Structure formats: structure tokens, C-alpha cells
Amino acid sequence: MTVPDTVLAELRTAAAAASDKLATNIEGYDVGERLGITDAFLVCSAPSERQIGAICEEIEKQLKTVHDSAPLRREGRDSGTWVLLDYGHMVVHVQHEQERAVYGLDRLYADVPKVKLNLPAAPPAV
């Protein structure tokens, strides 16, 4: 894996923040060798625009608090269906479930290594 330890720590913090706000299908990808412009992607989903906003706010808050890291750019806040938080060394994609199915980032990066995010196991469905 080529993701530096500092980036891995931030990626895991972002993943935990997304999980805390009930994001689904949270995946980390080591895209450094494939893209060369960033080390990692975090991709997660939510069923509504409001939840996407809450997830993004929590990710930004936790990364600022824990790592003193702020995004260089934010894209898609107005649309609310796909928000991209660009931290330079990693990019966070928070997508509406339908957008994720249509654009298929998981398919596009199926050939790169996944990053172990160390998230707690989801509770069983009732």
C-alpha cells in the first residue's frame, strides 16, 4: 500500500466521522499509483441531501479538530447529491445512493487496493 501513515490516519478519521452520521457503503481506495495527484479516496453514500450535508460537516469538523486539516476545495454543496471534499492528499466523495450507482466510482477503481478503514462492524439489521 502506498498511502502514507499520516494520510491513512486522516482517511480513517473521515471514515469514522461519516459512519457516526450513518453514511453507508464506506470504502477507502489507494489511488496514489493510479492517479498521481492524490493518495487516497474515501467514498460513502447517504439516502438524502440533508444527510449528505451532515456527513460532510462532521467529516470537516473531525478532520479540523483531530488533524488540523481543512479542505482545499469543496465541490457540489449546492447540488447536494455528490459532494467532493479535496484535501490534496486525499479526496472525500459523499454521494447520494442513486448518484453512486450511476457514476460507479467503485467500478472505476475496482482494480486499486482498498484501504482498511478499521470501522466497527455494523449492527445486524432488525
UniProtKB/TrEMBL annotation:
Function text: Functions as a ribosomal silencing factor. Interacts with ribosomal protein uL14 (rplN), blocking formation of intersubunit bridge B8. Prevents association of the 30S and 50S ribosomal subunits and the formation of functional ribosomes, thus repressing translation.
GO biological process: cytosolic ribosome assembly; negative regulation of ribosome biogenesis; negative regulation of translation
Subunit structure: Interacts with ribosomal protein uL14 (rplN).
Similarity annotation: Belongs to the Iojap/RsfS family.
SUPFAM superfamilies in alphabetical order: Nucleotidyltransferase
Stretches that traverse the bilayer: none
Gene (UniProt): rsfS
GO MF assignments: ribosomal large subunit binding
Keyword Cytoplasm: yes
Record's protein name: Ribosomal silencing factor RsfS
Record keyword Nucleus present: no
InterPro entries, alphabetized: Iojap/RsfS/C7orf30 (IPR004394), NT_sf (IPR043519)
Principal location class: cytoplasm
Keyword set, alphabetical order: Cytoplasm, Repressor, Translation regulation
Organism: Nesterenkonia sphaerica
Localization per Swiss-Prot or TrEMBL: Cytoplasm
Cellular-component GO terms for this entry: cytoplasm
